[in-house]
Prior knowledge:
The protein is mainly alpha-helical and 202 residues long. Helix content is 79%, strand content 0%.
Amino acid sequence: MLDWITNTITALNYWGIALLMFLENIIPPIPSELIMPLAGFTVTQGKLTFWGVIVAGTTGSMLGALPWYYVSLKVGEHQLKKWVDRYGGWVTLTNEDIKKSQDWFKKYGGGVVLFGRLIPGIRTLISIPAGLQKMPFLEFFGYSLIGSLCWNLLLTYAGFVLGKNYKLVDKFLGPVTIVVLGGLVLLFIFWLVQRKKQRKRQ
């Protein structure tokens, strides 16, 4: 897997990063935890620019988030689960994965799309409940863009700082993700409180 990711980025540069991040959002086992840190390491070698990597990775992430959203929106839960029973193994997707992502969505609302993009194992699947719950496209796109941008910034910067040790990103990602997620949750709560105050004033 690592050799394939390395060869793709080396051969296609920004296009390779965008392609890999697109596939990462379609096929869960392809890890962004390796793609973006490796791209960050490539920046230290002067082959790519930091912001070019961010734009490429985020573009690929956004393009990859759309297929599952539209499929879920159009076919509905019953047909989607029926399809997953037959073909889900090809993309390592199970009905249990769908149920887990739906539970997250129902528990935390639309904002979970943003936070879900920062959580390994959930980020690839979060488009599905958004589509099943018929989340408005602009809201889905906005939350996905912010979450994907934050995630790609975190991973790319980590790879940039660690250099040749970029593989360590995956090891330390859990605690860092929790800290970042906690900060975003606090910001989201603050935003909700301020919004309620504005409504009361009106």
